[in-house]
UniProtKB/TrEMBL annotation:
One record GO biological process: DNA recombination
Residues covered by region (Disordered): 40-75
The ATP-dependent DNA ligase family profile domain, residue ranges: 460-597
Keywords: ATP-binding, Cell cycle, Cell division, DNA damage, DNA recombination, DNA repair, DNA replication, Ligase, Nucleotide-binding, Nucleus
Statement: the UniProt record of this protein carries the keyword rRNA processing: no
PANTHER family: DNA LIGASE 1, DNA LIGASE 1/3 FAMILY MEMBER
Main localization category: nucleus
Domain of life: Eukaryota
Molecular-function GO terms, alphabetical: ATP binding; DNA binding; DNA ligase (ATP) activity
Protein name: DNA ligase
Length: 717
């Protein structure tokens, strides 16, 4: 596969510096996890209605090879060569009308707001890609091409990479409404009433601002000024921070013209609603670079170059999820060379490799016919990517690339001890599972125990639940990325160089065998040892490389509890609630759940759930979800409007993800998950709540593509 061969190529060891930590993690790049860019209805100002599904841009001429990439890889191309050609065509280019960028001045915020407006109004995917990439290209052709970094972050509604801790936008509605009232001189009650009517803080700000007479004209906002102000706001803490935040917002609001106020407020709220997700931003970047590089040679970008660049930028991003690094590297070395230069680097978490579910040992043997493989215990804890940096510092990242170092001071101490007893080790990236550990009995404890650990302000002295790290992969060792080496090689390197410490740092228990009885015995033993089942992985040859961000066929999971159902649990987004009756009066008694469609950015309903909750769960869920109630369903919700059985009593902002068990999947006329494929949606039968996935955001939930895959495997269609 092309993607895989690109990953493989990425190993070429080199000593070219990409960027110092200081440069990369520069002061104004602080983190904020994306809660943003959840796309909403198109072509509407005030009334929120459900948009029509965006037509699939794929054409009939799509090759079989493209289809395979599509079904297997999260790095799937958004378009095939034909679409790339269309995107590069003169007609598409001429219809974008993006604002020009002046050479001598910083990028005006009005230009970015203009592009946001165009994206919000336009619903065709290729058009949106063309608009964004034309704008990016304008920036690349100016004499400040690095301005693209801040523009990219503002477009995905973040202020830095995922893994930089602590800073988030997503200010509360009360603060923002207050800021609008103060900043525009309108009565707070009036602003509140408008908000309840309109349901969009951005529009309220824009309308309020347009009514306000201005005595003098303040300096227009620029992208760097907005970016720095947003960063300052995100960083502010402490008593007087609210007033200071409002102060900065007011100043910016006074300088806003036209749509600027709308997007500024939406950015602050953390919901940009431009219908242009992060995946599309990457593709638009690839296109802008391809065109820019070609134009320097007085040429036009070709469709082949565009398809290649798209794949490369995705691979590079999965290894180095940092737009500053990606953009600077593309500027320096060219877009087609970024994979070689954006290799792993301790301190930058890579997107973890994911596994495919299986339902039986025979299914595994079928999949791995003739290949050497290993079975490992599947520990039930929290994924932990451990980084040892050259300066001796240690970082631990979650499945979602969040920095968990503060949460696990005890683990940091373990790694320090490990480094001290292994003086040969200087830099390292390990993939591990962090599991609750019973120190006295020397045993693993269930996930539920781990989840009781404090998450914030953890002091070593008040840690009650001890943890042990189980390392299962070594991705980087002493200056060298290992991801293209075989698992066998990576595993020996790990075991040869690092001494385990009982109850603190151990290797995942493994067994290399292809004998059904032996595997069955090992599976049973894993469950007795408080594990979920097995992970089965190809061991040798190029197929066994580590594939960042990919849900790979080379990693299979076999979970004891799910062998009867579809092979795995699903992680679904809570989009609606049902008012509880009887014993559940006063709480929500059930919930409407949805899959996330990664291509359209929409939430497609999949089932109603009311089983598996304790009274305490329901009480807590009601407290958590109440403030996220919406007055209307979001435009990005896809649900059956004509059947009252499918409608919840209340709708929620998508924030929570439930892990859910199902007896099986069936087609249903009232649900919409994966409906693009079958006309009917795929729904869960007898869904049962297992737990809240607080390590997954709504966009990391089971995707509509995944539920289709689950259904097809079960139905064997
Ligand atoms: N030996 C192991 N090798 C790889 N992963 C392991 C191992 N032991 C435990 N794990 C954990 O198993 C996870 C994969 O299975 P799991 O079903 O728990 O995934 P998940 O987090 O629910 O994500 P998804 O369902 O999206 O795959 C890994 O992300 C890792 O956290
Ligand atoms: Mg798990
Ligand atoms: Mg799962």
């Amino acid at each position: 596969m092309l993607v895989r061969s690109l990953v493989r190529k990425a190993l070429i060891p080199h000593s070219l510096p990409i960027m110092s930590k200081q440069q990369t993690l520069g002061s104004f790049f602080s983190s904020a996890r994306a809660s943003a860019s959840a796309p909403v209805a198109k072509k509407q100002k005030i009334e929120i209605t459900t948009p029509e599904l965006t037509p699939d841009p794929k054409t009939d001429s799509e090759s079989e090879k493209d289809k395979e990439v599509v079904s297997e890889s999260p790095n799937k191309p958004i378009f095939a060569v034909d679409d790339a050609k269309q995107l590069l065509s003169k007609e598409t280019k001429e219809s974008t009308h993006v604002p020009p960028i002046s050479n001598s001045k910083p990028i005006p915020y009005s230009a970015l707001a203009d592009v946001f407006e165009k994206l919000e109004q336009e619903s065709a995917r290729l058009k949106n890609l063309a608009i964004a990439s034309e704008f990016f290209q304008e920036i690349l052709q100016s004499d400040r091409p690095e301005g693209l970094i801040q523009v990219t972050y503002l477009m995905i509604n973040r202020l830095g990479p995922d893994y930089e801790p602590g800073l988030e936008l997503g200010l509360g509605e009360t603060l923002l409404l207050k800021a609008i009232a103060e900043g525009t001189g309108r009565a707070a009650s009036q602003i509140k009433a408008d908000y309840h009517r309109v349901g969009d803080i951005g529009l309220v700000a824009q309308q309020s601002r347009s009514r306000q007479p201005t005595m003098f004209k303040p300096k227009p906002l620029t992208v760097p000024v907005v970016f720095e102000n947003l960063t300052q706001i995100a960083r502010m803490t402490g008593n007087s921070s609210q007033a200071r935040k409002i102060g900065i917002i007011n100043k910016m609001l006074t300088a806003c013209e036209n749509q600027e106020a709308k997007f500024l407020m939406r950015s602050l709220e953390g919901k940009l609603r431009i219908n242009f997700g992060e995946k599309s931003v990457l593709v638009a970047l690839a296109k802008a670079f391809v065109e820019n590089e070609a134009s320097k040679r007085n040429k036009k970008g070709t469709a082949e170059a565009l398809v290649q660049a798209e794949e490369k930028i995705k691979v590079a991003f999965s290894q180095t999820p940092n737009y500053e690094v990606i953009i600077k590297t593309a500027l320096e070395y060219g877009i087609q060379n970024i994979v070689e230069h954006c290799t792993l680097k301790p301190g930058i978490p890579l997107k973890p490799m994911l596994a495919k579910p299986t339902k039986s040992i025979t299914e595994i043997l079928d999949q791995f016919q003739g290949e050497e493989f290993t079975c490992e215990y599947k520990y039930d804890g929290e994924r932990a990517q451990l980084h040892l940096l050259e300066d001796g510092s240690i970082r631990i990242y979650s499945r979602n690339s969040e920095d968990m170092s503060e949460r696990y001071p005890d683990l940091i101490a373990v790694v320090k001890a490990m480094k001290a007893s292994n003086p040969n080790v200087n830099t390292l990236i390990l993939d591990c599972e962090c599991v609750a550990w019973d120190v006295e009995q020397k045993k693993i404890l269930p996930f539920q125990v781990l989840s009781t650990r404090k998450r914030k302000d953890v002091q070593t002295s008040d840690i009650k639940v001890q943890v042990c790290l189980f390392a299962f992969d070594c991705l980087f060792y002493n200056g060298e990325s290992l991801i293209t080496q075989s698992l066998k090689e990576r595993r020996s390197l790990l075991k040869d160089n690092l001494e385990p410490i009982e109850g603190k740092f151990q290797y995942a228990k493994g067994m290399d065998s292809s004998n059904v009885d032996e595997i069955q015995g090992f599976l049973d033993q894993s469950v007795k040892d408080a594990c979920e089942g097995l992970m089965v992985k190809t061991l040798n040859g190029s197929e066994s490389g580590y594939e960042p961000s990919k849900r790979s066929r080379n990693w299979l999971k076999l979970k004891k509890d799910y062998l009867e159902g579809v092979g795995d649990s699903l992680d679904l987004v809570v989009v609606g609630g049902y008012i509880g009756k009887g014993k559940r009066t006063g709480w929500y008694g059930g919930f409407l759940l949805a899959t996330y469609n990664q291509d359209t950015g929409e939430y497609e309903t999949a089932c109603k759930i009311g089983t598996g909750f304790s009274e305490d769960d329901l009480k807590k869920l009601s407290e958590t979800l109440k403030p996220t109630e919406l007055s209307k369903p979001k435009g990005s919700f896809v649900y059956e409007k004509n059947n009252s059985n499918a409608l919840p009593d209340v709708w929620f902002e998508p924030t929570l993800v439930f892990e859910v068990l199902t007896a099986d999947l069936s087609l249903s006329p009232i649900y919409k998950a994966g409906a693009a494929n079958y006309g009917k949606g795929i729904s869960l039968r007898f869904p049962r709540f297992i737990r809240i996935r607080d390590d997954k955001g709504p966009e990391d939930a089971t995707s509509s593509d995944q539920i289709i895959e689950f259904y097809e495997r079960q139905a064997n269609v």
